[in-house]
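Retro notes (design track)

What went well: tokenization of the new backbones is finally stable.
What didn't: we kept losing track of which sequence belonged to which structure.
Fix going forward: every design gets posted as structure first, then sequence, in one message. First example under the new rule, 353 residues:
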């Protein structure tokens, strides 16, 4: 066989005027490789086209589904609620109280005072949010927390000029050991589902967990519905503790268990929430403000003091004095201050002593 791709051989054949039956041999590997690459490119292009089409369809479906939900659960009428203003000083003071209480629980110390958060403080925090200011309000009545809201939905598909207008409540019945939650909206959604957005009745009880050596709270579903769908009996009958995963969380579980173990009760009163820590009988009522007010009246000029609170300091009692400019922590039996510290540092300052 003669390879006609050989140029020198072709030249000799032409020069010698040779005519013959010639079998032409060509290298087809290059052709096959080019064909394979072309096939792969076409397949890849089709995969990309299908992927983008499916993504577009999914995005479109999510857009229209979200728009449909917004249309069903919102209204065009809005409502405004009372605004409670809260200064930076008041916010810092609330933060210091909460921080001191929680830090003492985490260190397994018994706070001398209950943690009290008022209705005005909660609404004051809401008022510092541009989104929630005037659009949400919380009311505290004995055993009940109520919320009202009119939230703009402008950022959602189909939400321009529409509002999530509704209300909800949470009640605590300590006698029946029951927690009840219910959320309703002003929107009429009977063509989608009938009933509230959310309704839950939960049973709570305390239990000693041997694996943690702690007394913790258990929370079980007794009854309820979500978007009109009743929670099945087989789910309820599983008797799953809703808080179990939080207790077992690797990063935060130990801290959460320690705080829950240190709390005796959470009570909703008229205009305030009171959280009581576990105390021994000898610790009950450890701080007697009337007893210490005698010393305070003799030691300090109250005309310059905006607010004060009694706190634990070095196994004794100290007074936290609050003015427009500073926060000072002072002993009740000495006129000299033990150091002026910022409000957010007070908790660390006390716990380090």
């Amino acid at each position: 066989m003669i390879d006609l791709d050989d140029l020198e051989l072709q030249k000799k054949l032409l020069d010698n005027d040779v005519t013959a039956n010639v079998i032409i041999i060509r290298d087809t590997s290059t052709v096959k490789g080019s064909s394979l690459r072309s096939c792969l490119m076409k397949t890849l292009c089709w995969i990309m086209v299908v992927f983008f089409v499916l993504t577009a369809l999914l995005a479109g479906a999510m857009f229209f589904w979200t728009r449909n939900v917004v249309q069903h659960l919102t209204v065009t009428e809005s409502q405004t609620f009372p605004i409670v203003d809260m200064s930076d000083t008041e916010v810092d003071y609330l933060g210091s109280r909460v921080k001191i209480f929680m830090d003492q629980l985490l260190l397994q110390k018994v706070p001398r005072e209950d943690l009290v958060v008022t209705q005005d403080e909660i609404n004051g925090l809401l008022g510092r949010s541009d989104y929630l200011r005037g659009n949400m309000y919380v009311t505290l009545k004995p055993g009940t927390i109520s919320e009202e809201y009119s939230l703009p939905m402008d950022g959602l598909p189909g939400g321009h000029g529409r509002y999530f207008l509704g209300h909800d409540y949470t009640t605590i019945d300590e006698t029946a050991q029951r927690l009840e939650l219910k959320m309703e909206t002003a929107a009429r959604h009977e063509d989608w589902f009938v009933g509230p957005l959310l309704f839950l009745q939960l049973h709570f009880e305390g239990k000693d967990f041997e694996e943690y050596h702690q007394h913790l709270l258990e929370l079980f579903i007794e009854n309820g519905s979500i978007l009109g769908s009743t929670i099945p009996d087989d789910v309820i009958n599983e008797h799953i503790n809703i808080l179990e995963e939080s207790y077992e969380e690797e990063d935060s579980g130990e801290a959460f268990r320690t705080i829950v173990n240190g709390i005796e009760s959470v009570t909703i009163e008229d205009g305030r929430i009171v959280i009581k820590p576990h105390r021994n009988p000898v610790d009950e009522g450890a701080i007697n403000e009337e007893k210490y007010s005698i010393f305070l009246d003799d030691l300090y000029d109250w005309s310059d003091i905006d607010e004060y609170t009694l706190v634990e300091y070095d196994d004794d009692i100290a007074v936290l004095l609050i003015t427009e400019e500073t926060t000072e922590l002072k002993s009740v039996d000495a006129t000299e201050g033990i150091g002026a510290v910022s409000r957010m540092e007070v908790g660390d300052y006390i716990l380090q002593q």
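Added context from the reviewer: The first strand starts at residue 115 and ends at 118.
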